[in-house]
Structure formats: structure tokens, C-alpha cells
Amino acid sequence: EKSTDSSKTQDSAMKKKKKQKKAKGDPKTGQEEESRTCCGCRFPLLLALLQLALGTSVTVLGFLMAGISSSLLVRDTPYWAGIIVCVVSLVGFVMLCISYQPDEKTCVQFTVKLMYFLLSALALVACVLAVAFTAHHYLQMTKFTCDTILESCQCKLDTEDPLSRTFIYQDTTDCGSLTSMLSLYLLLQMVLNLISALVCLLACFVMWKHRYQVFYVGVRFYPLTATEVQQQKV
């Protein structure tokens, strides 16, 4: 009878321990779940949504700028930067559709994550270049003196210098509206591309530093806990 009573007490103690473990949860699994989420969402959902919105805005605005005048250069209408950012966001959404596998067990998972990291770095460079080009053009426009000649707007940096460079904007009859609208578009491009560059930089930093989606560079070793050490000794 004593043995049955002791066995019952041991069983009840074991059940209590299991309930406590379930209530507290495994700290390792909790850390792994947190490492794969960002603000309650699985990485990179938030960044991919931001990249898609910013990339679409930059692309649409770039094509609108190209429609103002046919003589605008490609570097002054940075729709190409917006397209790259949109491609990066699509790769991020593909990453969300791939089931999570620890320790890079699938080649597809590793390839998609590597593509997302490299494309984010490429988009970062493209957005920085777009900011530089649009800022240079905007500073030049602040010093322009423009005249409407036939169906073009001719602008000079220095009217007193005969050798000063002349900028010609075709397909326009009103220099005032063109310069004001183009200046506004250039300012918007600077702001949007700067935010896009920061978002892409954040994506690269998060993947590399915090290792969301378990972006491993080598083998990960777990430290032995006290219970594991005692079990090995026994």
C-alpha cells in the first residue's frame, strides 16, 4: 500500500511539473518563434509591404516625370529604382510562402533568402543613386533662367555667360508650370527614394544581425543546460 501511495504521489508531482513546463513554455522555442517574427508578423512581411508601396510610388512618379518632357534623361526619372524595389518586395512575399525549415535544410529556402538579401543591397544602391541624381537636378533648377521658344523650354544657369550650358525641355509651352511641377516631382523622388533606401538597409541589417528566418552563416551550437549535464552524468 505504501508503494502504491508513493507511486501516486510521484505521478501527481510529474503531472504538476509538466503543467508548469507547458505554462512557462520552452525558452528555446519561444526565442526561435520571436526570431522569426517582427512586431507580431512573420519576417519580412512589414518590410515587403513597405517596399512594395514605396517601389510602386517611385515607379509611377518616374513615368509621370517622363511624360512631362521627352528630353528628360533616364537618370532624372528614376522609375528603374522603383522597379528594383518592387522586385525585392516580391521576393520577400515568396519567402513568406516557403515553410520554415531550421538549419537551412532546404536549398530553395536558402536561395530565396540570399536573393532577398542581395536584391535589397542592390535596391539600396539604386535608391541612393536616384537620390543623388534628383538632388543634383533640383539644385540646378533653383538657378535656372528659362524662356519659352517655339514648343520647348530653354533654361540657362547663367544668362550673362554665353558659354553657359543650355537645358532644353521639349514638348512644353509654359516654362513656369514645367519648372514648378518638375521641382515638386524631384522633391518627392528624393524623399521616396531616401525612405526606400532606409527600408532596404533595414532589411539587410535585420537579416544579417538578428538572423530572422534563420539566415545562418555557419553551424549553430546550443549551450548545454544544467539538466542536460546532469542527465549525461547519470
Automatic annotation (TrEMBL):
UniProt lists compositionally biased (Basic and acidic residues) regions at 23-34
Q: Disordered: where is this region?
A: 1-34
Name of the protein in question = SSPN protein
Q: Which InterPro entries match?
A: CD20-like, Sarcospan
Q: Where in the cell is it found?
A: Membrane
Keywords, A to Z, come to: Membrane, Transmembrane, Transmembrane helix
Q: Which Pfam families match?
A: CD20
Transmembrane regions: 45-68, 80-102, 114-135, 186-208
Any Gene Ontology CC annotation: sarcolemma
Q: How does it sit in the membrane?
A: Multi-pass membrane protein
